Amino acid sequence: MATLTDTLAAQLQGAPASQFAQRLGISQEQSSAAINAALPLLMGALGKNASQPQGAQALFGALQKDHAGADVGSVLGSVLGGGDQGGAILGHIFGGNQARAETGVAQATGLGQGQAGQLLKMLAPIVMAYLAKQAMSGASSQPASGAEALGGLLGQEQQQIRQQGGLGGGLLGAVLDQDGDGQLGIGDLMKLGGLFGKK
After folding, report:
1. Which of 71, 79, 177, 192 is most buried when burial is the number of CB atoms within 10 A of its CB?
2. Total structural domains within the chain
3. Residue 168 forms part of a structural domain
4. How far apart are CA 118 and CA 24, in angstroms?
5. Cβ count within 10 A of residue 159
6. Residues 97-134: pLDDT tens digits?
7. What is the CA radius of gyration of the chain?
8. Residue 150 in domain
9. 199 assigned to some structural domain
10. How many helices and strands (H and E) does the chain possess?
11. Residue 198 domain flag
12. Residue 94 belongs to what domain range?
């Protein structure tokens, strides 16, 4: 079954990947590969944050407040036009691991560190708009459990990304599974809870 990440990645191939390539000064092939590596990292990190009830609540609130009603196409136009809400979003997604995330994407894709950071900044608002659409379509019938449903959806997504392995899954593990700077904190809770262990 296609994951949310796969579906979004498919929407960003073709013309969007070509526009990303122009912004970053890379080939379309590099752009497509980089998008396919970075999206699972963003989705997986959001899944990790939403695995705790307070994280899911905060994310759901942000989606409702700042991203509901935006479609991927209009957000894509905004980021390609130089809109820069992505930096703040990345700070929320990765916390103290943002530099590690940028380095991981750079190493995995052959992009420069600056290009990798720019790519993540461009993708972050697109991922949030896409998630808002998924979350709000499911939440309209049961608003009270919207955050809980979102947490479950993203938890399942993260599990699938890890099971698929490949570049995205490997990158997700490399960036999120070693909280060397101690700033993220959630990762340590996750390991204690064994949420990534066998069912």
Report:
1. 79
2. 1
3. yes
4. 8
5. 16
6. 999 999 999 998 999 999 999 999 999 999 999 999 98
7. 16
8. yes
9. no
10. 11, 0
11. no
12. 4-193
